[in-house]
Automatic annotation (TrEMBL):
Gene Ontology molecular functions: metal ion binding
Protein name, per record: NapC/NirT cytochrome c N-terminal domain-containing protein
Domain NapC/NirT cytochrome c N-terminal: 5-141
Record InterPro entries: Multihaem_cyt_sf (IPR036280), NapC/NirT_cyt_c_N (IPR005126), NapC/NirT_cytc_sf (IPR038266)
Keyword Cytoplasm applies: no
Keyword Heme part of the UniProt annotation: yes
Annotated organism of origin: Ectothiorhodospira haloalkaliphila
Cellular compartment(s): Cell envelope
Length: 158
């Protein structure tokens, strides 16, 4: 069996174990998993307006996709193809993130309790694709988050 496959299998098993695929889902542990690779995001989240919310509340793309993506990310990192502290992500998923915002903020409960907000936002969403169009980086302090690309804290060896 080639080295690639050994690494891939180890990585998938690790991702499933560490990612909370085995045993009960424990919310705080899941955040710890994310934070292991996303230190800047941890800080900007701590100082943002959603520190009470878990990473995956905004970033989930469904359980299966999360697991596949998680395994891929562990693989990319362990094979040195991506440094999550400094490299910009190759893709973001703004529409999924926005759907996750709506899952908390645009519920029938909100509609009942705050009809003005709900009506205003339903109207606005007819002209905008995502919540982020107006609420830039909700969940992260945008200034702290910007430091990530401006000032890598540790010099990289090639
Ligand atoms: C092993 C390291 C590692 C762990 C653990 C990890 N990530 Fe990532 N993450 C990465 C890498 C590497 C990328 C860039 C992937 C790419 O460019 O394709 C990334 C990209 C992302 C992105 C941008 C792309 C997207 O999917 O929208 C988000 C958001 C993200 N991670 C959130 C999380 C969350 C939430 C968790 C915890 C459930 C987590 N990450 C756990 C390494 C990791
Ligand atoms: C309230 C929602 C929310 C929470 C909670 C949240 N994020 Fe995000 N995150 C966002 C938004 C919005 C973006 C901007 C990109 C986008 O629109 O998808 C983003 C971007 C990111 C990116 C891409 C970085 C970049 O600069 O492009 C990563 C990685 C990430 N978040 C990881 C995390 C991690 C890890 C946690 C938990 C410690 C977390 N996020 C908590 C909403 C959230
Ligand atoms: C897990 C549920 C949850 C998710 C997911 C979530 N939020 Fe929130 N958000 C809250 C709660 C709770 C509050 C505080 C009470 C309130 O203002 O509704 C809040 C507050 C806010 C506020 C007011 C913040 C302030 O301090 O003025 C904005 C704006 C907001 N959220 C936008 C977003 C956006 C945009 C997203 C997606 C990127 C998002 N939220 C994702 C639960 C959530
Ligand atoms: C066209 C711009 C726009 C879009 C798109 C938008 N919002 Fe807003 N949002 C606003 C404005 C303007 C306010 C009120 C300004 C303020 O007090 O910060 C606001 C306020 C909020 C608040 C705070 C309400 C309060 O009582 O303090 C929340 C929560 C919120 N938006 C969530 C969302 C979510 C979730 C989405 C996506 C479904 C979204 N917004 C899309 C412009 C927008």
């Amino acid at each position: 069996m080639g080295r690639f496959w050994v690494i891939l299998i180890v990585v998938i098993v690790l991702a499933l174990l560490v990612g909370g695929g085995v045993g009960g889902h424990h919310v705080s542990k899941q955040n710890d998993f994310c934070i292991a690779c996303h230190a800047y995001e941890k800080v900007s989240w701590d100082h943002g307006d959603h520190a009470f919310t878990n990473c995956l509340d905004c970033h989930t793309k469904g359980l299966v996709t999360d697991k596949v993506q998680g395994a891929r990310k562990v693989y990319l990192m362990f094979t040195g193809q991506n440094n999550p502290h400094n490299d910009p992500p190759s893709q973001l998923h703004p529409q999924k993130t926005s759907d996750n915002c709506a899952a908390c903020h645009m519920t029938s409960e909100v509609e009942a309790n705050d009809p003005a907000f709900f009506a205003q936002h339903t109207g606005m969403m007819e002209n905008f694709d995502t919540c982020q169009s107006c609420h830039d980086y909700s969940g992260h302090d945008p200034e702290l988050q910007a430091l990530r690309f401006e000032a890598p804290r540790f010099a990289q060896e090639d």
